[in-house]
Amino acid sequence: MDINQLALLRELAERGSVTEVAYALGKTPSAVSQQLRTLQRQMGTVLVERVGRGVRLTDAGHALAESSVRVATAIAEAEATWSAFQGGASGTVRMAIFYSAAELLVPGLLTRMRAHPGIAMEISDRDVSQDDFAALTSDFDVVVAHRSDDVLPPDRERLTVVPLLREPLDVALPLDHPLASRPRVSPADVIGEDWIGVPVDFPLDRVLQAMSAQAGVAAKVVHRTTHLPLTEKLVAAGHGVALLPRHTSLERASGRYVLRPLTDLRAGRRIEVLMRPDRAARRAVSLVLDELLAEAGLANAEE
C-alpha cells in the first residue's frame, strides 16, 4: 500500500473532513477523494463512508489510520538514526506557543538554536483554551501548551507529551493596595476585589474559580485578556488585581506592582510540549526539544 495514501486516513481522522485535509496538504478535495478511492480498491474494503454532506472513517479506516501513525513514526526514527550517524540535523521545525510562554522561553531558545544552523525555526503565537492545544499538533511539529495543575485535557492519548516546567501563579496587587505589604495573601483576602482575568477555562481562570469556591464568593471579573502586559498595566494603574505567572511577570513588577504568593491553595500552571509521535521522532524536532528543556530548566532553577 502507498504510505502517502495511508497517511490521508490519519489526516481525515484528525481533521474530520476531506476539505480540511486538502487545505492542510495543499491538494484539491477531488485529488484527496481520488486517492482515498484508490486505497479502498487496493484494500478491497470500505474505508470511508458518507454521513450527511460529509464523510467519516469506518472501523477498517480507523484501524489503518492508527497503523499509519506507527508507519510514519518508524520512518521518522530511521531518518533520525541516519541523520545522527551523519553527525547533523537539518530541516524546518514549526512551533506553536502561547504568548507568555513565548516571552519566557523563545529568546533563550533562539539563542541556543544558533548551535544548530541547519535547523530553521518557524514560531507562531497560539493562545487557546487548554482543551484545544492538542488539535494544533496537526499543523505544528511542536506545540507548547499550558494546563491547570490537576486537570488533564482530552485528546492527548495518541500524542507525545513532555513536561517543561510548573510555573507558580501569584496575586498581582497595585503598589498602594492595603495588602501589598503582606508577604502572602489568602483567597479570602482578595476574592472580593475587581479582577483582571483571562478567558474562561484558561488555566489562570480555573485557579480563580478554585479561589472563589474556597472563599465561597464569586469573583468579579471586570476585564478579560490573554495579553499579560495589558493585565500588568491595569493592575499597576489600580483598576483591579490579577493572577500572574511568577517567572514571566516578576522582572516587570519592580516599581509598578507587587506579586504575592497565595496561601491555602496550590496555584500554578503546567507548561508542556505536545507532539505527534512521528514528528517527535524527527532528529531536528528532538534537538529543538532538548534546547527547550534546557531553557525551561533555568526557570525551574529559580523556583
Automatic annotation (TrEMBL):
Report the transmembrane regions from the record. none
Q: Where is the HTH lysR-type domain?
A: 1-58
Q: Give the record's keywords alphabetically.
A: DNA-binding, Transcription, Transcription regulation
**Alphabetical list of Pfam families matching this protein:** HTH_1, LysR_substrate
SUPFAM superfamilies linked: Periplasmic binding protein-like II, Winged helix' DNA-binding domain
Q: What InterPro entries does this protein's entry cite?
A: ArsR-like_HTH, LysR_HTH_N, LysR_subst-bd, WH-like_DNA-bd_sf, WH_DNA-bd_sf
Read off the PANTHER family from this record: LYSR SUBSTRATE-BINDING (PTHR30346:SF29), TRANSCRIPTIONAL DUAL REGULATOR HCAR-RELATED (PTHR30346)
* Family from the record: Belongs to the LysR transcriptional regulatory family.
What name does the UniProt record give this protein? HTH lysR-type domain-containing protein
Organism, as annotated: Agreia bicolorata
